[in-house]
Design goal:
Length: 128
């Protein structure tokens, strides 16, 4: 998408609003969904709880605050390797299911960004 395209700008400003909070909420929902339905736990298990607090912590410390792109596109790869694999697996599983379980929270554009193309080009050089 090109920044000059009409409509894109308003969409982006909208997306920047509360980006971090929104991402936190979606991450939490996804982890819970995964833990309950995929792992079959009635309560969030230890591993998932840890991953969730880790993810929240990363978002809290995100240097881009609300002006950042989604984590998938972020050039700062702040997740540790293990956690990144884990969260990626969860998102891949939970992403499509979010539309059924949490249609309101499954913010269309956020999910689209997360799944636009798996395996973020981690080493694409930022132009700035
Ligand atoms: Zn779990």
């Amino acid at each position: 998408m090109h920044p000059g395209v009409p409509g894109v700008f308003t969409l982006q400003t909208d997306m920047m609003k509360g980006r971090i909070e929104g991402e936190k909420r979606v991450v939490e929902l996804m982890i819970r969904l995964y833990c309950r339905h995929k792992e079959g736990n009635s309560e969030l298990c230890g591993g998932c709880a840890e991953l969730l607090s880790y993810a929240r912590q990363r978002l809290d410390r995100c240097p881009f605050a609300n002006a950042k792109p989604t984590c998938r596109k972020c050039r700062v790869h702040c997740y540790r390797r293990g956690e990144r694999e884990q969260i990626r697996r969860i998102m891949r599983w939970a992403g499509p299911r979010m539309l059924f379980f949490h249609p309101a929270a499954a913010v269309g554009h956020l999910l689209r960004e997360l799944f636009a193309r798996g395996g973020a080009p981690a080493h694409r050089r930022p132009s700035a």
